[in-house]
Amino acid sequence: MAMRFGRLDLNLLVALDALLTERSVSLAADRLCLSQSATSSALGRLREYFGDELLVVKGRSMILTARAEELIEPVRSVLEQIRTTVSVAPPFDPATAERTIRFMASDYSTEVLLAGVIADLAQEAPGLRFEIQPMNDHPIEAIERGYIDLLLTIDIAISSDHPSQLLFEDDYVVVGDRSNPAMDGDMTRELYFSLGHVTPRFGKARVPAFEDWFVRRQKQQRRVDVVAPTFLSLPGLILGTRRVATMHRRMAEIMVRTMPLVMREIPFDIPPIRESVQWNIANNNDRALRWVVERLHVAATSTGSAGASNVVPISSIDEVGRGQIEVEYRMTHPQR
User: Fold this and answer.
1) Which fold has domain 172-265?
2) CATH fold of the domain at 99-169+273-332
3) pLDDT at 312 over 90
4) Residues 50-100: pLDDT tens digits?
5) Where are the alpha helices (DSSP H) in the chain?
6) pTM over 0.85
């Protein structure tokens, strides 16, 4: 049954939101779980109601009309208000809950935390399903538009507009092939900057990992020989070479146990990262999400890095210095 406000079928607002977001009938159809013909029909009725084409073909893609651009925020706001106002949160029972939880997380976060938590949740909540999306150029937008439920990223990259939970800290080590002569003794600053490096960058904008961004701020620059697509691709790209990678300690410890690699301490100060989880403020009372966040927090704090004796505790970090780093990082990494 269609609910109507004036002459507008309110169900069409959902279709309009998808069309404005995806700017494609076929992609909107996939998002709505409708056929392309049904979605085209919805677009036709929306055009009739608004007296505007809304989406027009230009070349091989579709673009929004000026009227459609004006509608993006109001439509999203109305739908969000309806959802948060009239939706009654059902009681959450992990044993019987059936739902998909959508994460956005790097392969590093997946490897050192998510994989273990999801395996454990299979026992407590067998009906929960999980989707892990890779990091993209606009993670905060993904949270705000409802594309994902939970975002795992470093604390200086989260939004102050939405709630979050600190999960764990991690620092960095230098990792190289066991047969690499540069790894025979302690790593010195001179040696570090004389070596070829492998570092990951992400998304269309080729966003650098935090360690890469931070090292670029040093007066002395290192030579990046290989830009990798993921954190997990780093070990394979340094095996059998004289190159090294600057890697999170938690991940490095996993890799040196299973591959012919060794790790050394970094010969200069680099701040530890703080991994956090964030969710949309509109979902603050979502008991399923809060339950998953709590499980993430418990797992993160109970499975710390065995060798991270030089990780600086949160309470003793120079907050003034860290605040400056956060300001600089946000200036070079806009959230939208």
Assistant:
1) D-Maltodextrin-Binding Protein; domain 2 (3.40.190)
2) D-Maltodextrin-Binding Protein; domain 2 (3.40.190)
3) no
4) 899 999 988 888 999 999 999 999 988 888 877 776 666 567 899 999 999
5) 11-22, 25-32, 36-50, 66-86, 107-109, 115-124, 139-144, 189-194, 210-216, 234-238, 249-258, 287-302, 319-332
6) no
